[in-house]
Amino acid sequence: MDFSTPSHIQALATRVRQFIDQEVIPLEAEVDQHENGISPQNLQAVREKARAAGLWCPQLPPELGGLGLSLQEIVPVFEAAGRSLLGPLALNCSAPDEGNMHLLHLYANPDQRQNVLMPLVAGTIRSAFAMTEPSPGAGSDPTMLRTRAVRDGDSWIINGHKWFATGADGAAFLIIMAVTNPDVPVHKGATLFLAATDTPGIEIVRRVPIMGGNDMGGHCEIRFHDLRLPDSAILGQEGQGFALTQKRLGPARLTHCMRWTGIAQRALEIATQYAAHREAFNSALSGHQSVQWMLADSAIELHASRLMIQQAAWLISNGDDARQETSMCKTFVAETVNRVLDRAIQICGATGISRDLPLSRWYEAARAFRIYDGPSEVHRMVVARQVVKHYGS
Ligand SMILES: Cc1cc2nc3c(=O)[nH]c(=O)nc-3n(C[C@H](O)[C@H](O)[C@H](O)COP(=O)(O)OP(=O)(O)OC[C@H]3O[C@@H](n4cnc5c(N)ncnc54)[C@H](O)[C@@H]3O)c2cc1C
Q: How far out from the chain centre does Cα 258 lie?
């Protein structure tokens, strides 16, 4: 494995960092004023600037209007975009649209490509992915899926209850995971459907209030009441729901990690600046060994995070599904970011707790990193199964 970053990718990452620092970070001041974290006018304006700067959709191929970078090449670019929680939104590489575009790029038929993928790429619509359900439905264990699609002639009738579908409020369409064949193991009996959110039978019940809130489109509870969709609404093939979801979630877990290192790196920079300029007990804080160790531990863990992300991205780029490595990476990076933010707040004292710095907001947002797209315990279970298989006999 070659660890060097090609010079043109390094140059692009530097340009993205400058763009985020100059054009996006100033917009963080309004995060509390809008339920989506940014006003529609400011979002449109910053997206136009990103397009004009040649930074739009780094993850997509040029024929779709992206920059054509490989999964490995986007690692430093997504980290630079992730320096602000608004950064990926500005470049149209934020969750869940980024993962949904990836899935649609791989599996959409020509009509779905035209009607859904292309407007998503253009940034004129948004999307949501509806898999998780309240108890007793699918959560950590997606095989507990309850939402049911029943064939009726050449269409399907869907009934079910979902929640935490990120971005659903204001999204133009949903990707819905539902059981289509209850007579086979659920891995083979679930299907993905594309549905416009204004289709009769879709009820967006509420944005579930969460800590660290004000995310674009919220995290929504949704009910399906006899939602009728044609056969042509199926994404991929009937029965492929789990296989396709795996294709989406593997790279999407890594791209989460890439973006998360952006705020963690910025938190380290903020804490270091504070420690270098704040005096206590006749020394700058950065002169005290316990503060130095906190800075060092964060730098070490961030370095390890980047290497883990790079290696898993390299494996996926080379055709491996990197199931183990993705689980290791998602667990380690999510927990690292939480530790880095915690240390940064500790170093900055009361200022760290205040809203004068972005650390407290990120701290709230980062808690969910250890839960969504698989809680740490579930990823550890995946890793442990292989450890026991290889070394347990
Ligand atoms: C901010 C946010 C955004 C989200 N966005 C989306 C989205 O866009 N689309 C979507 O479909 N879902 C989304 N989710 C849902 C998310 O994917 C689920 O929360 C996650 O899969 C866990 O399911 P659960 O919350 O039902 O937890 P549960 O299944 O109830 O599990 C609760 C806890 O039990 C523990 N646990 C579970 N399994 C094991 C095990 N095997 N061993 C030990 N402990 C275990 C873990 O600590 C886990 O946190 C989002 C969630 C959040 C918080």
A: 9
On whether residue 116 sits in a domain, the answer given is no
Say what the pLDDT of residue 248 is.
85
Q: Is the dihedral of CA 158, 164, 169, 172 positive or negative?
A: negative
* Per-block mean pLDDT, blocks of 10 residues, the chain (393 long): 90 98 96 94 98 97 95 97 98 97 96 97 98 98 97 97 98 98 96 98 98 94 98 97 90 96 98 98 98 98 98 93 96 98 98 97 98 97 97 93
Atom number in ligand 1 closest to CA 95: 8
For residue 1, what pLDDT is reported? Answer: 74
- Residue 88 to residue 97: CA distance in whole angstroms: 10
**Ligand 1: which residue has its CA nearest to atom 32?**
140
Q: Which letter, b or e, does each residue of 203-222 get, where b requires 16 or more Cβ atoms within 10 Å of its Cβ?
A: ebeebeeeeebbbbbbbbbb
Residues 86 and 197 in one domain: no
Q: Are 58 and 66 in contact (CB under 8 A)?
A: yes
- Domain check: are 162 and 249 in the same one? no
Contact of 267 with 361, CB cutoff 8 Å: no
Task: Provide the angle, in degrees to the nearest 10, between the axes of the packed helices 323-353 and 376-391.
Answer: 140
Q: Evaluate whether 327 touches 382 at the Cβ level (below 8 Å).
A: yes
Give the chain's domain count. 3
The answer to whether the pTM exceeds 0.90 is: yes
Q: Which structural domain range is residue 310 located in? A: 242-391
Q: 271: Cβ–Cβ under 8 A, 6 or more apart, which residues?
A: 294, 295, 298, 343, 344, 347, 348, 352, 359
In this structure, the residues whose C-beta lies within 6 A of any atom of ligand 1 are 96, 129-132, 139-140, 164-166, 210, 219, 368, 371-375, 377-378, 381
Q: Ligand 1, residues 94, 132, 145, 378: which to mutate, most atoms within 8 A of Cβ?
A: 132
